[in-house]
Design brief:
Blueprint: H1 7-35, H2 50-53, E1 57-59, E2 61-64, E3 71-75, E4 78-81, E5 85-86, E6 93-94, E7 107-112, E8 117-128, E9 131-141, E10 170-176, E11 187-193, E12 203-209, E13 216-217, E14 232-236, E15 241-247, E16 256-261, E17 271-274, E18 285-295, E19 298-307, E20 323-331, E21 337-341, E22 344-345, H3 348-351, H4 358-363, E23 365-367, E24 380-383, E25 390-392, E26 395-403, H5 409-412, E27 427-435, E28 440-452, E29 455-457, E30 461-467, E31 472-478, E32 499-505, E33 520-538
Parallel strand pairs: 1-29
Antiparallel strand pairs: 2-33, 3-28, 4-28, 5-27, 6-27, 7-8, 8-9, 10-11, 11-12, 12-13, 14-15, 15-16, 16-17, 18-19, 19-20, 20-21, 20-23, 21-22, 24-26, 25-26, 26-27, 28-33, 29-33, 30-32, 30-33, 31-33
Length: about 550
């Protein structure tokens, strides 16, 4: 039963409660301030100005070593690109329903944290009235490995979705927009189409859905720059706009472009972000598509690298002809992108230098196709789009489609040329996983040092992702004159000798880094038979009740 009082009584009660609360808060605040008062470290903040800070980087969030953004000097160390590990249960999804005539093709995979469910929107091709049309299907999984195909159509008989009813529907990219206020537009899609059924109207358009299952096209039809491979849209929180990664058309112009929008309906002209360089001459590489992954404070992209298109028999000296593997793209701002080679990000100027690019091209493969006559994905692999990184047990999940045939399998004779009614090659969805932040390591089989650029440390804890099971890692902090900061020397640093994605760096008298806050420093890492993947400045303690005398 709820108690009800008159207005005067209510006012008196509230006044008394406020008084008690004010007295209690004063007591609680006064005690910790006195009990936790700290001596101010000499020089901290007192003389800090722009001239002292100079061009020091503000160390916020996680920092990877894909490029040299954080690195001032490497001695005795090298950078190494790492490949994901393909899952032993691959393929994790295959064509197994009577209505799935060919595929799976382009797809989006999303982990819905609200529903604790992996979701996949995938396509396959169906013959309709003498032509082929793309169909959109749906699958779910509790763990990202064992997938089911729920019967979600109106009659509950197939896993086919209510896709946009526009001629030529294909190449969809889907994401769940967490910023959208309109429930009917929670899920968004960009797709290719030709509304009048001819090549004259090839375009990209948009559709919306409240649940990701039933889709309605934008009204009127959104006119967006065309792409004839998967279009990958996402909300870029750093830039405050929607971004779409697509192929630069018209068809068969195989380079990668981006476009921006503030409303998901009106999009900017396409801007090329990847074009072919001298590195690509070796295997006659073209860029079929790129699946972007916003990753912390950087951007990554899985690039479908298609090699040497040919309708003729494959020459013995060019085994990579008509096949596709995946390379890695990298950007710090989402606009300027770099290719990632075997030793990390490659500067644009270096890509056009005359050199032997043969070994460099092979070392740049991030996810390779399989071994011929052995693996299910030996012929051709295509990246699947994950709008957000999917991380399970400190492993990053990457999905892709694979085939046991090459791109033009009906022409190349590999497998043998088939008649029009023959069953296509086997295709499926593969899963590959990579250590958290494990794209590029700084490592040594002996010993060496990494010195950072001048930094402003804004956390109270230094966390590093590293594998030192075969050796050790130590860290020291120095000022801009190279002098070791008292209490943060190599000798004072606790040895790192294990493998962890979250090593906390400590020193004898300094279990955290709050004495390094707000002052320009450099960090120097000493590595011995070990690998370093990333570092991060974090806050593990509450300092807001502490005060300096």
């Amino acid at each position: 039963m709820t108690a009800i009082c008159n207005p005067n009584e209510r006012t008196a009660i509230m006044s008394t409660r406020c008084c008690y609360f004010s007295m209690l808060l004063t007591c609680l605040l006064a005690f910790p301030l006195k009990a936790q008062s700290l001596e101010a470290p000499p020089g901290v903040f007192k003389d800090l100005d722009d001239s002292i800070v100079g061009d020091a980087l503000i160390l916020e969030g996680k920092q990877l070593f894909i490029d040299d953004h954080l690195i001032a000097k490497l001695e005795g160390l090298k950078k190494v690109l790492h490949q994901p590990t393909k899952h032993p249960k691959n393929p994790v999804l295959v064509q197994d329903k009577p209505w799935e005539e060919s595929g799976p093709g382009y797809a989006t995979v999303h982990y819905d944290a609200d529903e604790k469910l992996f979701k996949m929107w995938y396509t396959f091709w169906r013959k309709v009235e003498g032509t082929s049309t793309s169909m959109l299907a749906y699958a779910t999984s509790p763990d990202g490995i064992a997938w089911t195909k729920p019967m979600v159509d109106e009659k509950g008989e197939t896993n086919l979705l209510g896709q946009p009813a526009i001629q030529g529907f294909q190449c969809p990219g889907v994401f769940k927009d967490r910023t959208e206020r309109d429930p009917a537009r929670r899920y968004k899609m960009l797709f290719s189409c030709n509304p009048d059924g001819t090549s004259k109207t090839w375009m990209t358009s948009a559709a919306f859905s409240p649940d990701g299952l039933s889709w309605k096209p934008a009204t009127p039809t959104a006119l967006i720059p065309f792409s004839d491979t998967q279009i990958c849209p996402f909300w870029d929180s750093r830039r405050g706009c929607y971004v779409a990664i697509m192929r630069f058309g018209p068809p068969n112009t195989r380079i990668i472009a981006r476009s921006e929008s503030t409303d998901f309906l009106h999009w900017s002209p396409k801007v090329t972000i990847f074009r072919r360089t001298k590195m690509d001459d070796v295997q006659e590489t073209q860029f079929y598509q790129m699946a972007p992954i916003p990753y912390g404070n950087i951007y990554l992209g899985l690039i479908g690298c298609y090699h040497n298109e040919s309708l003729k028999p494959i020459p013995a000296d060019k085994p990579w002809t008509d096949r596709q593997d995946l390379q890695l793209g990298f950007s710090r701002d989402g606009i300027v992108w770099k290719r990632v080679g075997g030793s990390g990000a490659i500067n644009h100027a270096d890509l056009n230098k005359d050199r032997d690019w043969g070994s460099a091209t092979r070392e740049a493969v991030f996810l390779p196709y399989g071994e011929k006559d052995k693996d299910w994905d030996w012929g051709y692999i295509t990246p699947y789009y994950t709008p957000e990184p999917i991380i399970v047990n400190d492993r990053i999940y990457f999905y892709y489609s694979g085939s046991n045939a090459k791109h033009w399998w009906t022409w190349s004779g590999d497998p043998p040329k088939l008649d029009p009614n023959a069953i296509p090659p086997k295709q499926g969805v593969g899963l590959a996983t990579l250590r958290l932040d494990g794209f590029v390591s700084v490592e040594t089989a002996d010993q060496g040092t990494l010195t950072t650029r001048p930094l402003l440390f804004l956390g109270d804890t230094l966390v590093v992702n590293a594998d030192a099971t075969a050796g050790e890692i130590q860290v020291e902090a120095v000022d801009l004159k190279g002098n070791v900061i008292e209490g943060f020397s190599r000798a004072d640093c606790a040895l790192i000798t294990t493998d962890s994605v979250r090593h906390v760096v400590t020193w004898k008298e300094n279990p955290d880094c709050h004495l390094l806050q707000g002052r320009p420093i450099q960090l120097r890492f000493y590595l011995k038979h070990s690998k370093l993947y990333s570092l991060e400045a974090t806050n593990r303690h509450n300092h807001y009740l502490q005060s300096y005398k």
